[in-house]
């Protein structure tokens, strides 16, 4: 459905690699865990639709 509609999913850079590394270290040191909604690959359209209502991150997994 994404290809047929010529739809794309985009991201944006949010800091440097060092910033990301510091963030991960901080999370590990303080017991902070991510909250992720996982969607199987065949539910990619549902994940795409869910992105605007998701309070947390949605990830498509193979």
Automatic annotation (TrEMBL):
It comes from the Eukaryota. This is Alcohol dehydrogenase. The lineage of its organism: Eukaryota, Fungi, Dikarya, Basidiomycota, Agaricomycotina.
